[in-house]
Amino acid sequence: MILKSILLENFRQFKGEQLIEFDSDKNKNVTVIFGENGRGKTGIFRALMFCLYGKKKLSQDASVDESELHLVNSQELEDKSNEGKPVESSVTVEFEHENRKYKLKRSLLGILDEGRVIEQNHGVKLTIWDEEGNTSIKKAPELVKERIENILSPALREYFLFDGEKIERLTRASTEQRREISQAIRKLLNIDTLEKVIGATMKLSRYFNRELEKKATGERAAIMRLQRKNEEEIETGNREVDSINRELELARKEKIEVDKELEQIREIQDLLTIRTDLEVRLKDTEEGKNDILRAVKGLAGPTALLLLRNTANNVFQNIDRRKQAHEIPSDIRKDLIDRILSEMECICGRKIEENSEAYSRILEWRNRIPDNVTEDLTLNLWRDLSSARDQFENIEESAIQILTKFATLKNDQRELERKLEELRMKIGSSERADASRLDAHRLGIDRKILKLQHELSITSKKLDALHDERRQLTVRRKTIEDEEGIRDELTRRGDLVEQSLVALNRIHDDFTAESRVSLGDNASVYLSDILDEESRRNLKSIRVEEDYSIQIHDRWGKPFLANISAGQRQIMSIAFIAALAKAACGGLDFLEMPLFMDTPFGRLSHEHRKNLVQKVPHWCSQWILLATDTEFRDFEAQALAKTGTWKSFYILSARKDGSTEIHKTTMEDALGYICQKGKGD
Amino acid sequence: MSKINQRILDKLQDYSKEVQEYVKVAFNKADSMPEATLAEEMKAVIRRIIKVMAKGIEQ
Amino acid sequence: MYLFGEIRVRTDEKYKQLYNDLKNFVFRDMHEIFFTCAAIGYRSGRRIPLGKRGDDRFWSSTITPYEFAMFYSIVAETEDMNYQGLLDTKAVVEVAEEYANAGMEVLLEEILGEYVIEGGNGPILDQGSCDELPKIILAYIYDKSLSEPN
Q1: How far, in Å, CA of A404 to CA of A410, rounded?
Q2: What ipTM does this complex have?
Q3: Do A381 and C83 touch (CB under 8 A)?
Q4: Domain region containing A233
Q5: What is residue A530's three-state secondary structure?
Q6: Interface residue of B10, B46, B58 to substitute, partner A, most A CBs within 10 Å
Q7: Is there a single domain that holds both residue A404 and residue A465?
Q8: How many domains does one find in chain A?
Q9: Average pLDDT, stretch C5-25?
């Protein structure tokens, strides 16, 4: 799919008609859209989503009510409301796909009624030109939807946009990260039907177990009662988890509301900005600590080797000495010596006298030499100890490194908490009573969130134990049934259901596991494409773990997430999103879809920025880079220009009435403009 | 039937023919009814599969 | 390990749940816990036979070559560097079991005790207080490796 252009009419900040034409030549496929925050960069992406799918909300709008999202340009609404006329707002997208040209226009009508904005859909029109030049037009929303979804599967639309927040969400092994990834995989696999069948089969399983329990006797009946109790407890546990998650969601929404109110209070706005910054950093430290705690799990066992360092050295040196003294491996075989002793004759033919010195020396020698089996074992031991000793230093270093890092983070955490407390007192004691009240409320919500997270953790672990118990009960029951040869009709039906359930769950797990592996492999390829040289030497692959968190492995295949920098994290996240997009595209090497990246440069080093700018244009058919003036400066512009893939530059600037105007310039002019802007700072 | 279903059929080869039959029928019905209805319909299907299996053993 | 046979490695039955908990919260696998306890026990110079209180915990085949090399080294050191004793794998494992048994006691005395509560059959981890336990245990092991053995 190649995007040709997007025409905005009175949509969001864009008053009147404004056009963006996307670069789509084979070699020049990068379009840069440039503007300060709030000028409408995301607005362009919103326009695309609205036009293609009729979607008003983006994933970043999760906490906003749809009725509060206004798409019609407010300046135009005000102008027209004086005349009592409604405003037509529309987005027209032109694109090409598989030799056909498409033009899709979706419209809204808006009117300002006594201060309230009323918007309604005003139709959609899809015009299609085929290769012969024949035209067809579709206006029915369902037909348009069907057509568009055939070209761009709904799974794809999640990956059009790489925004800073999505990139950030994926960098830490948090619950959000895992949920995002597991949802992505489920969507990509379309496993709704499979899950429906599994659900129905589980219902059947419960039904048959109840029936069987009515008929069962003795130990079998007892186990079935336990199984039912276990099922009920698991169900209760699941409900508890859902309920806690819902409460967490509500608490978070409430906190956002309180923050909005606080922001209105001008007196404390600066303090609020500082507080947000501190809270972000605190969250970073906490997540850093969690990363380390996960990494530590793999270190405790190996570190215990250090406890026996002395013993290992002693034994190693002992065997080594004996090797040097040629006692091991013995130069001469024990059974040869035995023969000499029994025949009392040396190999050279000399007779040996009993009680002579020669005799006792030979005897002594024989006693020192181990037999073959012991010899082999001792040599193997020497080899293993030698190899283990080489590891001691590494192990020690890893332990010191990670303990130091943890201590640093803990200190940072304490420092940040202290600062936050100070800040809180300032805000809380401000002259405005409402500020203090709101702040106290906010603190209460924070405490509630912590408590809920703690409950969630405990309940999850309880559920894990219950699942273990369920597995054990199933095994015990089967044993009894086998032993008692219980084979009546009802049991057979129940067995079939159980076997089918096992098969379905195994298939479900296989699919998701295969997806995880393939995502990890693809992400690793993208990663090596854009990592800087030094990182590339050490960071080798990305894996999606069984719990759907992302892990990065070093060249020895050891998990390394706890040790990477914020910039490397960001690169990892971008590589991963690209892998998701690739999966959504059917797994082809080249992404036949436009990638929108919203301010991806964030915490990246110069080399990383250069790599992104050089490599991403080759990943996909079109790259639309949405950038701010703080992110996209002379360095980035020059690096991009050198690739020869960039043609158009769009500047979003503010008009006097607050709306946004789109200016198109060429790349050459853009370079001048950015250079000027840089000097102006 | 979506692409995924072919892969499922492949993976089912590891299981008994009764299980394969169950899963195939379930998938065919799944698109057109909600989960609860599907469960009810499959009760009859299971009875049928087991009866056929029993006949097979007797012979 | 160098010789054949798979043996069930045993621990005191009262530590069954604790081993499970530690596997979930602090270590990756049973054999790691066992090895750490054996190392601690040996360094403390304490060993406690299992007697009748022994319970199967895991298969010997999961023990890593390094860990087994250390067990052999322990036996060799206690037998004055006579390597004949290493031939009897079962006996080597039993020695490790005794040190691991004592080692767990030491571990509980010196650090873990603060994080456990009494379960029905023995100590279990107090899940509410285990957030930083992996790091605490790592720090303990590392510190101990720097000090002089008993």
Answers
A1: 10
A2: 0.94
A3: yes
A4: 216-265+432-486
A5: helix
A6: B46
A7: no
A8: 3
A9: 89
